Amino acid sequence: MLSAHENAVLMRKLERYEGRVPHMYLDARGYVTVGVGHLLADLAAAQKLAFARANGSAASADDIRGDFESLLTLPGNRLAAYYRPHVRLTLPEQEIDRLTTAHISSFHRELQTIYPGFDGFPTPARLALFDLIFNVGASNLRTAWPSLNAAIRARDWAGAATHSRRAPPVSAQRNQYVRNLFEEAATVTQ
Fold it and tell me: InterPro entries given for it (predicted)?
């Protein structure tokens, strides 16, 4: 269970590294995304959200289709602001918060499954793992990081720090943030 302080830190850091974008855009890998890194896997996923028109009225399924499909004609890996002139709809702030909170809850359950005893890990280690799972996904974290997972199972936080680096497009700053958290966890448990 995350404390209120941990949740606040997590929200702040996720917004820092993922951004907080109220309109649809293409992420670094070319996927349609909105809010705080919320991937929209397909049009149906986008149409489930409460997008709004500029006048504040609810967007229709066709409105959402228009924005979603217009993005697919554009190049990927640009700043989110690049896509703003190509879309008409926005996601209200409370909907962005709801999605982010839902992601955190979902990832918390995943982390508890992947790492038995997760809730007893030092706070910095938990925050590092939240950042990793948010960025790489639960399945990838579970299967594509054997050295990191071995270190975590051994509660070897210094080893986890060594094996936590993600490849670009993840920034060096974000990688350093996660490494620092694991290193801090190592000092907490000594």
Answer: Lysozyme-like_dom_sf (IPR023346), Lysozyme_dom_sf (IPR023347), Phage_lysozyme-like (IPR052619)
The pTM of the full predicted model, rounded to 2 decimals, is: 0.88
**CB distance 128 to 164 below 8 Å:** yes
Where exactly are the structural domains of the chain? 19-96, 115-188
| 22/35 Cα distance (integer angstroms) | 5
Q: Residues, the chain, total?
A: 190
Both tokens of residue 158?
A: 């210094």
pLDDT per residue, tens digit, the chain (190 aa), is: 788 999 999 999 999 999 999 999 999 889 999 999 999 999 999 999 999 999 999 999 999 999 999 999 999 889 999 999 999 999 999 999 999 999 999 999 999 999 999 999 999 999 999 999 998 999 999 999 999 999 999 999 999 999 999 998 899 999 999 999 999 999 987 6
| Residue 21, strand partner residues | 35
Residues β-bridged to residue 39: 33
With H, G, I as helix, E, B as strand and everything else as coil, classify residue 144.
coil
Chain centroid to CA 166: how far? Answer: 14
| Alpha-carbon gap, residue 83 to 25, rounded angstroms | 6
